[in-house]
Amino acid sequence: MGQTSSDGRDMLAGRLLGLAEFTHAHWFFGNLYEAIVKIPDRVAASEASRELPRTPFGAGSPGRYYAPIAPLSAPAAVAALISGWRHSESRTWLIVAAASSATGAAATAYLLRSINPKLFFSPQPLDEARRKPLLKRWYRVHALRLTASAVALAAIHQARTIRLKSRG
Description:
Blueprint: H1 2-36, H2 39-45, H3 63-66, H4 73-83, H5 88-120, H6 128-167
Helix pairs in contact: 1-4, 1-6, 2-6, 4-5, 5-6
C-alpha cells in the first residue's frame, strides 16, 4: 500500500509540474508579448467605443487571454512544491518556482487593483500628463512580473528535468 500511495503522489507531482510549466509559459510569453508590442500604451490611449469598450475583458484587452489560465499559475507552482517536497533533488527548484510565482502574482494583483483601473478602464483615456507616469509605473512593475514569471518557468523546467532523469 505504501508503494501505491507513493506512486500516486509521484504521478500527482508530475502532473502538477506539467500544469505549472504550461501556465507559467503562457504567462511569461504573454507578458513578453505585451511589453514588446507596447499593448499598455495602445490600450491606455484608445477611445472607448461600442466595439472596443474600455473594460477588463473588452476587445483588445489582454485580460481575456490571461483570465482562463493565469490564475492557475501560482497555485500550480505551490501545489507542485507541496506534492514534490519529499524529492530533495528538486526541492530547491520547486521553492524558487513557488516564491517567484508568488512574487509575480503579487505584482499582478498590485497592477490589477492600483494601476489598471485608472489607466485602462476609465470611461475615456487619461490625458498624456496623467497617463505617462502611470504607464511608467506599469512597465516597472511589469518588468518585475516578467522576471518573476521567467524565473518560475526556468525553475519549474529544471525541477521537471531532474524528476524525469531520476525516473528514467
